[in-house]
Amino acid sequence: MIRLFASLSLAAAIAFAGVCGWQTRALAQPSGFNEAQVGAIEQIMRDYLMENPEILREVLSALEQKESRERAEKVAGAIEEHRGSLLDAPASMVLGNPDGDVTLVEFFDYNCGYCRRAMPDLMALIETDENLRVVLKEFPILSEDSVHAARASVAAARQGKYLDFHSRMLAAKGTSDEAQALRVAADLGLDLERLRADMAAPETQELIADNQKLASNIGIEGTPAYIIGTTLVPGAIGLEGLRQVIEEARAAIN
Question: Cys staple from 226: which of 36, 49, 124, 233, with CB 3.0 to 4.6 Å?
Answer without folding.
Answer: 233
